[in-house]
C-alpha cells in the first residue's frame, strides 16, 4: 500500500479493539491495515451510491487513501 494516507480518528468498541489486536499479533499485520480493508469492503458494497465522477476529483497520485 504505497498510496498516501491521511490520519483520522475512529472510535471502536473494546471488544473490536481486543480482537483486532489479537489478529494483528497472530498475523503480524497492523491493526490499521485491517481497518482500511474493512472500509474498502464497505465502499465496494455501496459503490452504486458513490458517483463515478469522484475519480475525476482525485489528485494525480491516485488519491486513494487506502
H/E series, N to C? HH
- Output mean pLDDT: 86
Question: What is the first-to-last residue Cα distance?
Answer: 7 Å
Characterize the biggest β-sheet: none
- How helical, in percent, are the residues? 40-55%
Which value, in Å, is the CA radius of gyration? 14 Å
* Residue windows where pLDDT falls under 50 for at least 5 positions: none
Shape: elongated
Helix/strand-derived class?
Answer: mainly alpha
| Beta content | under 5%
Total DSSP E strands: 0
Tally of separate helices: 2
Describe this structure in words.
The structure is a single chain. The longest helix is centred in the middle third of the chain and has 15 residues, at 31-45. This protein starts with 13 loop residues before the first helix and ends in a 21-residue tail after the last helix. The chain is mainly alpha-helical and 66 residues long. 44% of the residues lie in helices and 0% in strands.
Amino acid at each position: 500500500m504505497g498510496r498516501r494516507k491521511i490520519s483520522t480518528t475512529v472510535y471502536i468498541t473494546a471488544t473490536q479493539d481486543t480482537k483486532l489486536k489479537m489478529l494483528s499479533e497472530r498475523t503480524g499485520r497492523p491493526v490499521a491495515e485491517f481497518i482500511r480493508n474493512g472500509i474498502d469492503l464497505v465502499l465496494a458494497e455501496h459503490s452504486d451510491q458513490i458517483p463515478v465522477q469522484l475519480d475525476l476529483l482525485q489528485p494525480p497520485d491516485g488519491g486513494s487513501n487506502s
